[in-house]
Amino acid sequence: MEEAAGSAASGVAPIRAGTPARPIAEIDVEAAQATPTGLAELDRVLGGGMVPGGVLLLAGEPGVGKSTLLLEVAARYAALGPVLYVTGEESAGQVRLRAERVGALAPKLYLAAETELPAVAGHVDEVMPRLLIVDSVQTMSVPEAPGTPGGVTQVREVAAGLIRLAKERDIATVLVGHVTKDGSIAGPRVLEHLVDVVLQFEGDRHSQLRILRAVKNRYGPTDEIGCFELTDSGIVGLPDPSGLFLTRRTEPVPGTCVTVTVEGRRPLIAEVQALVAPTALPQPRRATSGLDAARVAMVLAVLEKRVNLRMGAADVYTSTVGGVRLVEPSVDLALALALAGSHTDMALPPGMVAIGEVGLAGDVRVVSSLPRRLQEARRLGFTTAIVPAGADDAVHEEGLTVVEVTDLGQALRTAFPELRR
Predict the structure, then answer these.
(1) Measured between alpha carbons, how far is 133 from 144 in angstroms, rounded to an integer?
(2) CATH: 3.40.50.11010, 3.40.50.300, 3.40.1000.20, 3.90.76.10. Which one for 31-239?
(3) Per the database record, which ranges form the RecA family profile domain (predicted)?
(4) Most Cβ neighbours (<10 Å): which of 28, 136, 233, 349?
């Protein structure tokens, strides 16, 4: 009695728990096992599949293919049980036409066009789905909550209601979220903290490549990515996407260099291109596509100061192939060689890759996962690799000549033998 009085006095009145606490070893884990979605690339990112009661937020720019991906998932998941797809963006007829086009018509896939959360809950009671998809959370509203749909208060209340529904009924739930111009998820930041998994769906509108990466994952890794190809007939997983990031040519071209980047745990072969051209403009142009503009400016400055390649009065354009975005420092060396090749009008030898971070002193620094990168280069037929010195013996691959360099000048002399003369 004194114990209960003490609890009430502290400001928290005790109530009878709905479910008694049990020893952790007696908790049934079968119901919490992940169920594969049928899309191997998505399962790779999720860590096995969808977890009953888990809430996933899928974010991406408009038109990137979020709805197409989820229709594919819904159709495959419907083979295991009922799936409810709630659309607030389009009419049910529009979604049905897209599902027919991509081959996502399934007998147990149910479709509803709603914008109010109580109506969504009513459909859940009728369908009893194993998977609930809400497209999108910014179009839903709670009549009792203040504000307009998409506002901070409404998005928070809608998300809280859907999460509560998912946890109480053990329904795997996917919420679609828009992103703002700077790439962040629209709505309150608390939305990302409420859900269990946050996935970012990325891709250039002018490219068919789409990359799915985990920003947060309570049930699996956050360093995996999934690669997809968006076509007129749907979306297809790409277990080996490296070939999409290379240009097929018969002769070497000045201003290009191949590197190996690591996205998550996956090594990807990618090509960096550069064009250094004379200009009559008083302010030379600097344009980048798929690369970090700050790192491009830094590499240009290092080339000017440390190896005396004067490009300050020239227009400089840099890009990647296939719409892939390369932001990790290991791309620096390939970028430097591409810039130097375009400036001197010299092409790299065929079959060469370059991997390494460039420091402000002109030094070439060791990068992570070098053995894995070299294995990928050898697998795809490359014969020579320029890498930072100081790596262990494990980086040497049979059939691949590995040349270790300490600074940018040595790397340039290795890549362009003409500079030695």
Answers:
(1) 23
(2) 3.40.50.300
(3) 31-179
(4) 136
CATH number, domain 244-420, options 3.30.70.3550, 1.20.1530.20, 3.90.1150.10, 3.30.230.10: 3.30.230.10
DSSP single-letter state for residue 395: G
Is the bond preceding 136 in cis, omega lying within 30 degrees of 0? yes
Cβ–Cβ under 8 Å, residues 18 and 185: no
Decide: helix, strand or coil at residue 25: helix
Backbone angles phi, psi at 283, to 5 degrees: -115, 100
Tens-level pLDDT at each residue, the chain (421 residues)? 444 444 444 567 787 766 788 898 887 777 678 899 989 999 999 999 999 999 999 998 888 899 999 999 999 999 999 999 999 989 999 999 999 999 999 999 999 999 999 999 999 999 999 999 999 898 999 999 998 888 888 988 999 999 999 999 999 999 998 776 555 555 546 688 889 999 999 887 777 888 898 989 998 888 788 989 888 888 999 888 877 788 877 788 999 999 999 987 789 999 999 999 999 888 999 999 999 999 999 999 999 999 999 998 999 999 998 778 898 999 999 999 999 999 999 999 999 999 999 999 999 999 999 999 999 999 999 999 999 998 765 566 678 999 999 999 999 999 998 876 5
| Feature table: binding site for ATP | 60-67
